[in-house]
Amino acid sequence: MPVADTSLEAYYDIKRIAREQCRKVRAFIEANPDVTNEQISEGLRIKIQAVTPRVKELKENGVVWITGTAKTSTGRSAKTVRVATCPRCMSTGVMAERRDAVSFRYHCWNCGCDFVARVGEHSADEVEVTM
Predict the structure, then answer these.
(1) What is the pLDDT of residue 31?
(2) Element at 66 (helix H, strand E)
(3) Which of 86, 124, 89, 128 is nearest to 107 (CA)?
(4) Torsions phi, psi for 28 (to 5 deg)
(5) Which residue ranges in the chain fall short of pLDDT 70?
């Protein structure tokens, strides 16, 4: 059964929007380290339902790290994130390559440093960097 042209258009439009939102979310996190999804949502003026999957994608690809917790507007605890950062020069211009289920190998484009970050198997695990 062929797929309707309108269905294909909708699919690619959704993919394009998600990609753009991912870039915006990453840029916001880089400019505002240690933020929660709620703070990202408020800062970018996009729904939390659009922010949460983008942050999850960025974490799963080693682009952002969980750094701790903060209180939300409801008083509950939420994880904070920041963009992956070179431990030597503090640059966020790093390339991530998944090593295994719990760690990434990184290369810093600024200083050439190679390092490993253990990010854990679960979204609740905080990052641990080793040179």
Answers:
(1) 97
(2) strand 64-71
(3) 86
(4) -65, -45
(5) 1-8, 10-14, 120-126
